[in-house]
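Please review the protein record below. Let me know how this chain folds according to its tokens.
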Amino acid sequence: MPKATWNGVVLAESDRCEVVEGNQYFPPDSLNREYFQPIAKTTVCGWKGTANYYDIVVNGQVNAGAAWYYPDPKPAANTIKGYVAFYSSKVKVEP
């Protein structure tokens, strides 16, 4: 089962992930939300739409902009609406 961890804690774990462009997108209900802080950063993908970001905060340590999601994706990416992915360089994601 895919699992995302950082700084000794499980951030998300689910057997209902969607894989897009090599990234595991975790369903919203699989997140340990206590570690996620929304930030103002956004980026735009031509086929997925506008992504919003989270900082990950564990034991006072901040992993800036380590996670992203598409709250209102374009139709081609509707399967990942609200799902969260992580930068593999910032968070360990096991398939």
Notes: The mean pLDDT is 97. The chain has one domain: 3-90. The CA atoms of residues 59 and 85 lie 21 Å apart. The chain has no helices and nine strands.
